[in-house]
Every structure is written in C-alpha cells, then in structure tokens.
Amino acid sequence: MSIISFTNKGIYCPQGKFYIDPWLPVDHAVITHGHADHARFGSRHYLCHKFTEPILRLRIDPNLSISTLDYNEAITINGVKVSMFPAGHIIGSAQIRLEYEGFVAVISGDYKTEYDGISSAFEPVRCHEFVTESTFGLPIYNWLPQKNMFDEITNWISNNQLQNKTSVFIAYSLGKAQRLMKGLEGIAKLFVHSSINNLNKAIESNGIILPGTELVTIETSKADTQNQIVILPPALLGTNLIKKLPNPSVAICSGWMQVRGSRRWQAADAGFAVSDHADWPGLLSAIKATGAEKVYVTHGSTATFSKYLNEIGIESAEVATQYGKEDDEEVAEPKKEED
Ligand SMILES: [Zn+2]
Ligand SMILES: [Zn+2]
Predict the structure, then answer these.
(1) Would you list the domain boundaries of the chain?
(2) Which ligand lies nearest to the CA atom of residue 107 in the structure?
(3) Using CA of residue 223, residue 224, residue 230, residue 232, what is the dihedral sign?
(4) How far is the CA of 147 from the centre of ligand 1 (A)?
(5) CA-based angle 14:20:26, to the nearest 5?
(6) Of 70, 165, 212, 268, which alpha carbon lies 20 to 30 A from 240's?
(7) Relative to the alpha carbon of 33, which ligand is closest?
(8) CA-CA distance, 238 to 250, in Å (whole number)?
(9) Do domains 5-140+276-332 and 146-272 have the same CATH topology?
(10) 225 alpha carbon – ligand 2 mean position (Å)
(11) How far is Cα 67 from Cα 192, in angstroms, rounded to an integer?
(12) pLDDT value at position 266?
C-alpha cells in the first residue's frame, strides 16, 4: 500500500486528494514550512502550522486562504488523517503525518535533529513510508553541537571587539537569522536588515517573543554599529551596506562552510558551519527512528544517500523534486545586490 505519489506538481496523496509542498498551483496544498521552495504562490487553499501562517501571508499574499494546525493536532481530509509534528528546521516547520486505514506516511520537509533554541525540537514519528530531505546527506557533514558552535562564534565576536570591528553575519533571513539572534542575545546590540525585520514581525504576530533588534540601513551611523552585531541576508554580501559599516568583519553562516571554508568567499573573513538541516548522523538517526519500510529521498545528495540507505538494508529510492532552492542552497550561490 502507498498513500503518497510523486507527480509533476509535487508530492500527492491520492486518497486525500491534496498535495504536500507542491511547486505548481493546486486546489489544496499542505505546507511543511515557510521557505520559498516549499511554500509557493497560486494554490487555492493552504494548510500549515499556525506559526507558518503569518510567514505565508507576508511572503506570498496577505489574502491567502489558509487553515492551520498546531503540533500533534489532527484533521481528516477525505478520510485521511493529517497531523503535524515538529521538524526542528525553522519556526513553524512541521513534518506532515498522513494516516489512512492504518497505513502511515510522513513527509519530513526540511529538518534538523538538534534543538536550536528557537524552533520546536524535532520529534521522530513512526511510519511505513518516510520522505526525507538529504541536503547534507554525505558523511563529511557533521555539525558541532550547538553550544560549541556558538562558543566559536562568540569568541570571534570578542576578538573583533578587541580590534574595534563590527561583526557582520551573512545568514538566511528566515530561520538562520532568528537562530543567530537567539544564540547571540545579550552579547552585543543586534542589528538586522529590513528583510529580516519584516520576518521577525510576522513571527512575533503569533505570540513568539524574539530578542530585541534594531534596523540597519545604509544611513545608520557608524557610531551605532561599531563593535556590535549586524545580521544580513546573503543577497547583501559585497554590497555598499557592508562597506559603510565601521570596520566590518564578515562571517558567512552556512552548512557549506564545513567543507568550503571561507576560501570560496573573497568578501568574507570567516565561515561558520551553521545549518538548519540535519547532518549525516542526524539524517541516519532520524530515518532509523521512523522504522519506515520505504524511504524516499529528496533534495541534495539524493543519489548517494539513497544508495547508502539501500546498502545498510533500508529500502530507499531517490525522488526528483524542485526543493532546495532556498536557505542553505541560496547561501551557496549568492546573488548580486538586492537593495
Ligand atoms: Zn527549508
Ligand atoms: Zn527545502
């Protein structure tokens, strides 16, 4: 039995007649999280976690038709029980659990297994079929524990401050920016770009309290940001906004930094492997915890990762999707000036 199929519009549940994270417009879209490769415009109705609703309204359209669920809450659509469990990826990210006549499928969306201090912690869900991501599905990806990672970053900031430098972080605006804000709260003043500020406001409209920040623009005075922390999205790398900051030292925060280091980046002084995706051990432990009979692998290292799963006795197939064009992927290939 199977209750999901892979179509040219996205992952489909034929029994429930709805799609999960479709990349083309459909009647009924169930959304795992607010990143643009998973939540796209044009569908007639959206179902998402309650924390994702204001993100969709901000990024897609304020007048979308949206209904929401909380974690562990369920509704039934055409006989299929649909519920959401924390994916630990960003605020509001949910694994979608589908149950039909006792058969269970889980679509993970993007996930990470370590608690990041701000997104609800990942919960493994038992199922027959599991759709996993594999953005970092190679053994070389092995993240530092969150505490050690923030210790490294905090040391870097302290060194910058000794040299009267402003610490500038390049981090994706939805997810990584809020995680950095939380991890660096109280160390120095936090300045963020307007694109991050808009998302912060949307997130806070749902009752979540984020650390206090100030807006940084091209007009912000040097005296204000000197020795402080500035968080900017990847599109701002190499732009005038950074050049106008007092004595900036720039760090890129991305899982890709684990391999490429800062060498790839002429414009960066440091790189930190901060990722909102599971690393290799995280992917394997999450998949084993589902007990799934069949695992479908999407985004990233799909071929290598599904081959490895088959070798260790977990039946697996790679699936072509259109995911993986945001968050860490975007940091890998920065665009030119946005504003
Ligand atoms: Zn994502
Ligand atoms: Zn994704």
Answers:
(1) 5-140+276-332, 146-272
(2) 2
(3) negative
(4) 22
(5) 75
(6) 212
(7) 1
(8) 10
(9) no
(10) 33
(11) 30
(12) 60
> Is the domain 5-140+276-332 a CATH 3.40.50.300 member?
no
> For the chain, how are helix, strand and coil distributed in percent, rounded to 5?
25, 25, 50
> pLDDT of 74-98, one tens digit each?
999 999 999 999 999 999 999 999 9
- Give tens-digit pLDDT for 165-191: 999 999 999 999 999 999 999 999 999
Q: Do the Cβ atoms of 274 and 171 come closer than 8 Å?
A: yes
In one letter, which amino acid is 301? Answer: S
pLDDT tens per residue across span 250-298? 999 988 888 765 455 566 899 999 999 999 999 999 999 999 999 999 9
Among all bound ligands, the one having the nearest atom to the CA of 55 is 1
Give the pair of three-digit tokens for residue 113.
């297994």
Pick 146-272's CATH classification: 3.40.50.2300, 3.40.50.11890, 3.40.50.10890, 3.10.310.40: 3.40.50.10890
Q: How remote is the CA of residue 176 from the centroid of ligand 2, in Å?
A: 13
Q: Three-state SS string across 234-261, please? A: HHHCCCHHHHCCCCEEEEEECCCHHHHC
